[in-house]
Write a structure and sequence with these properties.
Shape: elongated
Largest sheet: 3 strands, mixed
Number of strands: 3
Distance between the termini: 31 Å
Number of helices: 8
Structural class: mainly alpha
Order of helices and strands: HHHHHHHEEHE
Radius of gyration: 25 Å
Strand order of the largest sheet: 1-2-3
Length: 298
């Protein structure tokens, strides 16, 4: 995390997302009904998905930040992945609703040209979605929060769908009467896509996906620089929401006493924790060797 302000931003950004998306949903739906824009109504349903996603993020951040206890020795970090999966299911439902309505409208030949107010509402929605994307993306990256990054991705998708709606509205003004319904279908496809990405992200987190290879290599170099570590046999890791767990097997000389070995592992844990962000649990297993190996590491 680069700045202390990131913590404050991380707390406020999801709240603004919830409030803002609810307001934008109501606003776009009313304007869509008045102007007759199927695309804008579809975009309002997308904002419903945004609001629900942000609510899940708020709940996830509250519970994932709870301290460890006897029943949950590794913490509550995986709540974020569960919330991401539930949010993706709501998004899929919104996508199906939008797609069916747009296809039925095209089948019936209901190609009403929306009023000009729909363009203004879409531009306003576009600006809001992009601001929320930048805010959640920055905070989620700095805090290493999968739930906030999923919410940021949803805001980005909302800005892209608003752009599709805008192009559809412009198309109707140019004489392409079905362009608004086509834009609604494009919105549905975008919603499906972002929902699939969120679902896979949540599933990967629940099945203990590893941290980045670059971080693994960095941890290995840190370990080899610790006095008393003769080699690194293996490094295993798994993500636990905003934090990660690392299991490290190191080689130490068999001549070392129990106290000396303990001090080596203590220095190693401190060095890794101070130099690698997002590491919460560090487990070290020592493997005694008779002499210094010729090549350190694997």
């Amino acid at each position: 995390m680069k700045y202390v302000e990131c913590l404050r931003c991380g707390r406020l950004s999801p709240r603004w997302s919830v409030v803002g998306n609810i307001v934008m949903c109501i606003f776009k739906f009313i304007v869509g009904v008045i102007t007759g824009s199927k695309g804008l109504i579809a975009d309002s349903l997308h904002s419903v998905a945004d609001a629900i996603s942000s609510l899940f993020v708020l709940v996830a951040l509250k519970y994932s930040g709870k301290p460890k206890d006897k029943e949950r020795p590794f913490g509550y970090g995986k709540v974020e992945y569960i919330s991401t999966i539930f949010a993706s299911l709501f998004i899929f439902l919104c996508a199906v609703t939008v797609l069916i309505d747009a296809l039925e409208s095209i089948k019936r030949g209901a190609n009403r040209v929306p009023g000009s107010g729909a363009i203004f509402a879409t531009l306003l929605s576009l600006g809001f979605s992009w601001i929320m994307y930048r805010s959640n993306s920055c905070a989620g990256t700095q805090l290493n929060s999968p739930a906030m990054l999923a919410d940021a991705a949803e805001s980005k998708a909302d800005s892209l769908t608003s752009m599709a709606v805008l192009l559809g509205l412009i198309g109707t003004k140019m004489g392409f009467r079905s362009a608004d319904n086509v834009a609604a279908i494009v919105v549905a496809v975008f919603i499906f896509h972002i929902g699939a990405e969120m679902f896979l992200s949540g599933v990967h987190g629940l099945i203990d996906v590893s941290i980045d290879p670059e971080a693994i290599e960095k941890i290995k170099k840190i370990c080899l620089n610790v006095n008393g570590v003769e080699g690194v046999k293996s490094i295993r890791s798994r993500r636990m929401g905003q934090k990660s767990q690392v299991n490290i097997d190191i080689e130490v000389l068999q001549s070392k006493t129990v106290l000396e070995t303990h001090e080596i592992t203590k220095r190693l844990k401190t060095s890794v924790a101070n130099n690698v962000e997002g590491i919460d649990n560090i487990f070290v297993r020592t493997i005694p060797i008779q002499k210094v190996t010729l090549f350190r590491g694997n």
